[in-house]
Amino acid sequence: MKTFCGIMDLYPPVSQNSYELICRRVNAASKNVAIQSMKKAADEEVVAVNSTDITVSGDGTWKTRGHTSQIGVCTVIGADTGKVIDVEVLSKACKGCSRWKGPRVGSAFKKWHARHSQVCTKNHIGSSGKMEGDGMVKLFQRSESERGVRYLNYIGDGDSSTFLSISACHPYGENVPLSKVECVGHVQKRMGSRLRKLKKKCGSKKLYDKKTISGKGRLTDNIIDQLSVFYGNAIRQHSNSVKDMRNAVWAIYFHMRSTDNEPLHSFCPAGETSWCKYNQAVSKGTAETFHHKNSLPPAVMDAIKPIFNSLSHPELLNRCLGAYTQNTNESLNSVIWQICPKISGSGRRIAEIAVYESVVRFNEGRLGRLDIMKELELCISNNAISSHKKADIRRIKQGDRRAQQNTIEKRRERRRAKALVDSKLSKKEGLTYEAGGF
Q1: How many CB atoms lie within 10 A of CB 25?
Q2: Claim to verify: residue 103 and residue 115 sit in the same structural domain
Q3: Are residues 345 and 224 in the same domain?
Q4: What is the pLDDT of residue 335?
Q5: Is residue 263 domain-shared with residue 160, that is, in the same domain?
Q6: DSSP state of 234
């Protein structure tokens, strides 16, 4: 920046000390506004459920991709209001600490450490992957004192040991149990990942019908995607009953196994409005002329049956009651890294500014940014108010449009079409890339 200003005959940029002072002030202002917004969100959640014992979705996200990031963020969002209740930014690095080159003993180090500890940005010791667990423990431990609520039901993704860490610390005492609620979106992905793993494991191995598990009319990528979507829909559409949920999952299995000689549609919903074409034909009295088109061979169905057994276990489905998701956490993560891009380096203070502004924007809309400006004692013009109002209106309209069923179906259709094209290209081109494979 100094070089650029010099070439362009401009005044030199702000000094590093001034820049850090500005960042600290913006950090403090955005933090104050965000805390007030999160306390308000906690109160709204209490009103929504009429209890201080609430259900929250928690998630961790990292500044850089992969579990080597120096900075991580943990977020807790109310399940009913969808608003952010608490956040924690963790950092395992500090530039100031690295500047001390001498031995970390003696009076000189103690004097330096006493001064530096007040501004040190390092607040996590351990691996990057452990940030989510440690951050969530902090959020749970301070929930009663700072938010006046208890997070008794935790919506998690099952990708990490976060819930085990939370349970082990007994944030509300040993006599107050916590319950884990599965994110339906992540549970749905298990169907796809396990089927793909099975397909890869079987490879060119022949099943008992002397054919491989994959190929035309068998377990293709397109069929795997369909089964994953059907499985997710079975959970979402029967989210109030484990029994109905389980029946709906097995309806998928037997529906895909059905043939003209052996129709297995007893689990499928009956009536003319059923998604099952065979049961529609039964209700219309045309079952005798019905022809099954997309059935999978018995050998393939027998191979994937253990996966259906595992993913229809009552213990798993019981944790899916309510059909909760972590979509709100993922949306918040997206906003955070829009403000503080992953491709650019930054420290904990900049990450905190991004997190706090994201919280305010997420809870209050774009107009919430004006509260941060007020906290900074900045002048707010009518143009600023108008532009932020318009931005909120555009966002709401866009959200409503994307939430329409026909729009959702079009997006799904585009994804399926793209996946089908990719699958055909991969099959046509063969193996083109594999680590150490050539």
Answers
A1: 13
A2: yes
A3: no
A4: 93
A5: no
A6: H
Verdict on whether the full-model pTM lies above 0.85: no
Q: Which residues pair with 74 in a beta bridge?
A: 60, 88
Please tell me the distance from the alpha carbon of residue 272 to that of residue 255, in angstroms, as a whole number: 16
pLDDT in tens, 108-164: 888 888 888 888 888 888 888 889 999 999 999 999 999 999 999 999 887 668 899
Q: Tell me: pLDDT of 36 over 90.
A: yes
> Is the per-residue pLDDT at 357 higher than 70?
yes
Q: Which two tokens stand for residue 291?
A: 């022809």
Residue range(s) defining the domain that contains residue 14 = 1-182+336-380
**Domain for residue 331, yes or no?**
no
Query: What six digits make up the tokens of 423?
Result: 């699958």
Picking from 255, 266, 267, 265, the residue whose alpha carbon sits closest to that of residue 293 is 255
Residue 182 has pLDDT above 70, yes or no: yes
Helical pair 131-141 and 162-169, crossing angle rounded to 10 deg:
40
Alpha helices in 258-347, H assignment, sequence order: 277-284, 298-311, 314-318, 327-339
What does the alpha-carbon distance between residue 369 and residue 26 come to, in Å, rounded to a whole number? 12
d(CA 323, CA 233): 10
Considering the domain architecture, whether residues 358 and 267 belong to the same structural domain is answered as: no
Note whether residue 401 is domain-resident.
yes
Domain presence at residue 435: no
**Residue 435 predicted with pLDDT over 60:** no
Q: Is 93 helix (H, G, I), strand (E, B) or coil?
A: coil
User: Is there a single domain that holds both residue 246 and residue 349?
Assistant: no
Distance CA 56, CA 97 (A): 36
State the total domains in the chain.
3
Please tell me whether residues 178 and 160 are part of one structural domain. Answer: yes
- Which tens digit of pLDDT belongs to each residue from 49-74? 999 999 999 999 998 876 788 899 99
Task: Give the whole-angstrom CA distance, residue 54 versus residue 80.
Answer: 9
Q: Looking at the structure, tell me whether residues 123 and 151 fall in a common domain.
A: yes
Residue 352 lies in a domain: yes
Q: What is the dihedral of CA 370, 374, 377, 382, to 10 degrees?
A: 50
Q: Edge to edge, what strands does the sheet with 179-182 contain?
A: 84-91, 71-78, 53-62, 150-156, 179-182
Cα distance between residue 136 and residue 332, in whole Å: 16
Q: Quick check: 40 and 363 in contact, CB under 8 A?
A: yes
Q: Contact at 8 Å (CB) between 10 and 340?
A: no
User: How far apart are alpha carbons 226 and 255 in whole angstroms?
Assistant: 13
Domain co-membership, 199 together with 120 = no
Q: State residue 4's pLDDT score.
A: 85
Q: What number is the average pLDDT over the span 88-113?
A: 82
Predicted confidence at residue 121, as pLDDT, reads 84
